[in-house]
Amino acid sequence: MASTRERVAWSTSGYLMLVIFLALAFLLVLRITTFGTAAPGDDAVPGFLGSIVLMPLALIVIAKGFYMIQPNQAAAITLFGSYRGTDRNAGLRWVWPWMGKTRISVRANNMVSEKLKVNDLRGNPIEIASNVVWRVADTAQALFDVDDYKAFVVVQIESAVRSIGSRYPYDDIEHHEVTLRGSHEQVGAELRDELNQRLAVAGITVDDCGLTHLAYAPEIAGAMLRRQQAEAVISARKKLVEGAVSMVEMALNQLSEKNVVELDPERRATMVSNLMVVLCGEREAQPVLNTGTLYQ
């Protein structure tokens, strides 16, 4: 399929043509009134009849060529079905009346897609939706290379969101991978790039996009919530144990360096056990006084 590219169309200022239109209308009225009040000869009648036929015809031609373009709007000009160019000049414009004029907005459009159910990278069903800010960059492609560019945008956004949703896992704590929930900027940038590639054929460009809704599907939401809670507890426990081990090691090293107490392997193991219980326990430790020795 041959791609249509936007080019500048010929058009002129509508205000200039409006002045010409008013001047012709004034001359026509003046011609009729002066001919009726004067006593013209027979040789003036053909000229009068010609003027009252040609001048109204010229007024009709001029009047048919006017059209209005608002800011951030364009008009595609066609001649008997052939694309002649695009006029992006705002205000009152004028072209020949036999030229077709199709207005198209080049303003930014905001679209929130519907919630889609997609399987993520690990096969978990999730619900995902996005917000896309797009605009028409090439009016010729938007009007003539696709049947309905707005419907085309809707379908391509849905396809791109499904594609992005299946490339990454919803969430991941263990492997530190790129996820839909934790890497919003990276996922949004990749979604924008894919949309620009898909919509290039329609002359559409995407300025900004991002995910507006992301959740597990209802049928697995409860199970995945428990899994997230378990992973969070495991991660917290791991950090707690790592911190406790470093504190115990520091305490034993300082006791040995400062000769506070001499610890044989059995006493050292007992102290390590007690410190780990104190540091890792969820409840406050209850002190126990030992009035004897460790071996009694």
TrEMBL record:
One of its GO terms (cellular component) is membrane. InterPro entries: Band_7, Band_7/SPFH_dom_sf. This is SPFH domain-containing protein. It is a single-pass membrane protein. Keywords: Membrane, Transmembrane, Transmembrane helix. The keyword Transferase does not apply. It is found in: Membrane. Residues 64-232 form the Band domain. It comes from the Bacteria. The chain crosses the membrane at residues 12-32, 44-63. CDD domains: SPFH_like_u2. Pfam families: Band_7.
